[in-house]
Design goal:
505 residues; alpha/beta; Growth Hormone, Chain: A; Rossmann fold; 2 domains; eight-stranded mixed β-sheet; four-stranded antiparallel β-sheet; 17 helices; disordered C terminus
């Protein structure tokens, strides 16, 4: 292969790979303030496709007017400069737009358009330019363009798979952007180097951008608190930071778990309310926690029930690592952590548990397949006779999302009880296939008896006082199924209702 052919190969392949990698990475830029919902991915795909169409058209026109390799180099230089700006200030821009639009789908589209459309336009000019420069014989235009599109698609494939399986799971966002910018500057320099004397100023500017890119991770500033952990994974963006003696684990911008640094105990209210299961069923001997977080729920239950065997299922291995390294989680012989999707874990298991507790509905995006009647039917199959199913919900029964979950759970569990979590907007749903009863005592006497046996904080009598009436008409709620589960849309309606209520107040 000649030097000219190698240069041309680099110019065609690298920008295509960078473009598709950038599309995958863009979700991690948006996630902390817009979540990782279908709205985010719809915005990303739509904006990138639209910008690519603009880039193809504009690049073709430029190639007809100035079919010069240095011109293509200057376009790539612009793409690199824009990427550097996004790397340096993208997080602040997303935070500002997220606050201004309250994380709405429209805000997601606006942020994607503002940050990534210009870069995509410039990167997309490569394909028509390459066809123009490579076509010397119009009779071979079809085969030439076909070969170039095949090469470009190969680069896109490498970019997509590389970002998915290598960059995002193992590298920080700053490092990923540095790699992508360098992946744009290399073909830029290759194109400009075809006429080095005439392109000295542009080559100098490309050199400056290269230096800034290599330096960029050290001068990147973070708005707000400096995180102890700032990591993007295949599933979410994770941060750990300390504030006022509390250490928080943040998932896609939402506080997922927290511990008091002085005592090591759970600092959020909702994990402590998992003990409400004892109000409606016998003390469990086994417990399955879907969604590990910092491991607080299992740990708090075992403090009062030392013989309790706890299994925790977490889809993201980084969460388990962070819980152990930063959140005070210490695996015990009576605790087992399973890295798996919650539904897949249940489908592949033949075990039953006395208490199954689900804490998988986090932030503005939830795994829809864990909200459906089919999933709850699977949960019922793994619940031991007399057991209880608990679900941590982020809103009350009058919200569209929670009412939909209540109706869907009710298809498999005829007996439901709902408890507000004092000090937060969360609610704990308890569901059984049998009536809510224990030792024949009425609820208040049952709670008083249990508080004499156990030392839960808050007390079970206190939790019982926050039991909510379930007088909503569930027949009007959306039934969620594998074929239709608009969970993210319902969450958006929840947020809209919350903002409206706030304005009314």
């Amino acid at each position: 292969m000649s030097l000219h052919q190698l240069r041309f190969l680099i110019i065609v392949l690298l920008p295509a790979g960078v473009l598709m990698a950038l599309e995958m990475v863009s979700s991690r830029v948006l996630a902390p303030h817009f979540g990782n919902s279908v709205y985010v991915w719809g915005s990303i795909i739509g904006v990138f496709l639209g910008a690519m169409a603009v880039g193809y058209s504009w690049g073709g026109q430029l190639a007809d007017r100035r079919p010069e390799m240095p011109m293509l180099g200057r376009l790539l230089l612009c793409a690199a400069a824009l990427q550097l700006l996004v790397a340096a200030f993208g997080s602040q821009v997303v935070a500002a737009l997220g606050g201004w639009t309250a994380g709405s789908p429209a805000g997601t589209l606006l942020a994607t358009l503002f940050l990534f459309a210009p870069i995509t336009v410039f990167l997309s000019t490569v394909a028509p330019f390459a066809i123009k420069l490579a076509t010397r014989d119009l009779a071979l235009l079809g085969s030439t363009s076909g070969q170039l599109y095949a090469l470009s698609t190969g680069g896109s494939l490498v970019g997509t798979l590389g970002a998915t399986f290598l960059l995002i799971p193992y590298l920080s966002l700053d490092t990923i952007f540095a790699i992508l910018i360098l992946g744009t500057l290399i073909p830029c320099l290759a194109a400009l180097a075809t006429e080095p004397r005439r392109q000295r100023s542009w080559l100098l500017l490309a050199g400056v951008l290269t230096v800034l890119t290599l330096w960029q991770p050290s001068w990147q500033t973070h708005a707000g608190l400096e995180p102890l952990v700032d990591r993007i994974t295949a599933y979410q963006s994770l941060q750990v930071y300390d504030q006022h003696g509390i250490r928080y684990l943040v998932s896609d911008g939402t506080r997922h778990s927290a511990i008091d640094l002085a005592s090591g105990e759970a600092a959020l209210s909702y994990p402590r309310h998992a003990s409400a299961a004892l109000l409606v069923a016998p003390a469990p001997q086994s417990m399955l926690v879907l969604g590990m977080g910092a491991g607080s729920v299992g740990r708090l239950m075992q403090q009062q029930l030392p013989d309790l065997q706890v299994d925790m299922v977490e889809i993201d291995p980084a969460v388990a690592e962070i819980a152990e390294q930063y959140m005070g989680f210490r695996p015990q012989p009576s605790q087992r952590v399973h890295i798996d999707d919650a539904r897949r874990f249940l489908e592949n298991s033949d075990r039953q548990w006395d208490y199954i507790y689900a804490d998988t509905y986090i932030g503005s995006a939830v795994p829809f397949h864990l909200t459906t009647v089919e999933f709850f039917a699977e949960v019922r199959q793994h619940l031991a006779p007399g057991g209880v199913f608990g679900v941590n919900l982020v809103s009350g029964p009058d919200s569209p999302f929670t009412s939909a979950v209540l109706r869907s759970v009710h298809q498999s569990f005829p007996f439901l009880s709902l408890f507000a979590v004092r000090g937060s907007g969360n609610h704990l749903l308890l569901a059984r296939t049998e009536p809510m009863a224990f030792q024949g005592l009425e609820p208040t006497a049952r709670a008083r008896y249990l508080d004499e046996v156990y030392d839960f904080v808050p007390s079970l009598q206190e939790i019982l006082r926050w039991r909510q009436p379930l007088d909503v008409d569930l027949t009007q709620a959306q039934l969620l199924s594998d074929r239709f589960a608009p969970a993210n849309h319902l969450l958006h309606l929840d947020r809209q209702a919350t903002r409206t209520a706030g304005h009314d107040d």
